[in-house]
């Protein structure tokens, strides 16, 4: 799935000369946390987010530095802080270094980008023009739209299920296959052995549940963070 499949196409925008107060009212009225700034040619020039509007002289929240800190802060930085806290137009407060994607960007890459940059939305560009925006809520809507077809049961023999499960576990770096045993009986997966944490145990259960043909998963494992010593040392070899 790509950006073009999930993005919001009718994007609310402002111009560089839009008054800051108007931008604030727009965010509140639309219930959004940020708005792209575009020029007369629809080219993206920045984004104004809630974070860009937190340091305002009207609120008394402008940045204040002690004497020594201010002394060692460059004049360019001090001037930039002043413009952000006193500026009257969108161009004064907007973030100019905007991360963007194209309509063909995979949503997995967008999720990685949002996480790495700690951002809530990513503009989508085509030929340098703003054509949409992907926000966290767009990704959630894509998730909510997924449907699992459980109407047709999958029939698989126990050996095939076990082999498929071991293959899946082999792809996961957290899996301790040498310390665990998987037994499959009549489509029921039995998990035996040791795990370090409850999260590791849950991950094993989820992998097993995702293998086609599995009817249920039964856990017989020891969680070392809860039970420091195995009940039967040496009895959990693969």
From TrEMBL:
Entry keyword Zinc: no
CBS domain location: 7-63, 94-150
Signal peptide: none
InterPro entries: BON_dom, CBS_dom, CBS_dom_sf, Diverse_CBS-Domain, UCP036990_CBS_BON
UniProt keyword list: CBS domain
All copies of domain BON, residue ranges: 157-225
Domain of life: Bacteria
CDD domains tied to this protein: CBS_pair_BON_assoc (cd04586)
PROSITE patterns: BON, CBS
Protein name: CBS domain-containing protein
Species of the source: Rhodovastum atsumiense
Source species taxonomy: Bacteria, Pseudomonadati, Pseudomonadota, Alphaproteobacteria, Acetobacterales
